[in-house]
Amino acid sequence: MGLHRPHNRHGLPTLTQIEKKSAGRVCLVGAGPGDAGLITVTGLARLRDADVVVVDALVTPTLLEHAPPDARVIHAGKRGGADRDLEQDQINQLLVDEVRAGRRVGRLKGGDPYVFGRGAEEVAYLASHGIEVEVIPGVTAGTSATLTAGIPITHRQIASTVTFVTGHEDPQKGGSSVDYAPLAALVKTGGTLCIYMGIARLAKIVGRLRDAGAGDDTPAAVVQWGATAAQRSVLGTLATIVDQVRDAQLSSPAIIVVGRVAGLDEPGLDFFTRRPLFGQRIVITRTRQQASTFRDMLADLGADVLEAPTIELREPETWAPVDDALRRIGEYDWLILTSTNGVEGVAKRFEALGMDARTLAGVKVASIGDATAEAIQTRLGVRPDLVPDHYVAEALADALIDQHDIAGKRCLLLRADIARKALPERLAAAGAHVTEHTIYRTVVADALPQHVLDALRRKQVDWVTFTSSSTARNLVEMLGDERDLLQGVRLASIGPITSRTMRDLGLEPTVEADPSNLPGLTDVMVGYR
Fold first, then answer.
1. Which residue among 35, 49, 51, 56 is the active-site one?
2. What is the pLDDT of residues 266-285, one digit of tens each?
3. Separation CA 72–CA 91 (nearest Å)
4. Which residue in 35, 197, 478, 525 is the catalytic one?
């Protein structure tokens, strides 16, 4: 009988707890070309199982969110090989040391580990020390950056061959081992040439191809930051491409494409850059716990998303009042939850107290917003009895008063410590008995990420989004003397309450979502002209 391995949520085998504690290992994972979604399912599973993650610079930082919270992340070096954090021999020895210490190492390499990377060298070094390595292939720039730039590297009618070439060979060899004569002949007969890491030597590469017989009118393209929201590209010919790249100020990482396919102009090939928010840089100010959903929505539409959490969520100083109220939940007529964070807090306290959906039998549940309503159904196992059409506290209060005869009813309101008083005050004025407890606290985040500040200072931000009044107040506080950095930036508000706070702070919303939720906020930015 074979060894049984438990399976994770993706259906992939994982190590048992005994194996995890006793066996160090290395998994070399191709992280793809930049888009976090292009890592393989197996590669993602190995990342989620790592004790230590050794990561190359071109790997998107978003992938690191999938590593275990207690995993140690080691940045192996800066792109292009210059000013490396670690030299290659140091990386090799680091991998050996971590495995011998019994740790599971996820080695993330951009693109595919064996395509013009040093993956094979690392595997050979580990093998020489008696360490076996699992290698997970990845999507490489030659197939991904070209595709997202609208260039099919093969085409049934004009290109039946494709050749991958490095433009950056081992400097210790001296000279170049690349013979450009057959490459020029290949291009002349319809083949496609994909040149990696050659942008710094573009003029020399083009010159050698032309000297070897490739015609000046041969189509050529350069794609920078392919398959990411920062992608830029230029299309030209061997006669023009050097000047075009210089004028566009393209630099590494980039891939060079030479051949007839680079001159194709067929409908639909440019799907990637036609997405409605492509190339727009958007700063989102949600909490770290909430940012991923919004980020993914915007990224799917082509945006370059920068996360600048302005709020940190904390537990209450004590759970005693909340726990006591939940134990006596049957004494209440209504449970009122105004955010997904509140729902999550209730779900966690239910688990801690050994309670479940049956506890809410006979209690009506009200929520603000469809996201909160969905969370109530998913996390608490009940369907809300009331969700107002407008996602603000006043609308919920009015609906309870007008539709449910709230006078004399007992309401348990669980929400943030900084929530506005409008909801409990309106309900109390209508005769309801409102018990309110803090189920989570919000505090100002320590500081804005440096790369976000740098982008604002360089005037390289198109939008800043605000999903609550506190995100607006906190961002202004965190900017301090530099609040003028928001001048000239489009400001997106999730709804009228947030807009009112923004105006009190001297910030005029460019757009306001309707409905007041994340899809509404996304739609209003897409529709802005």
1. 56
2. 888 989 999 999 999 999 99
3. 15
4. 197
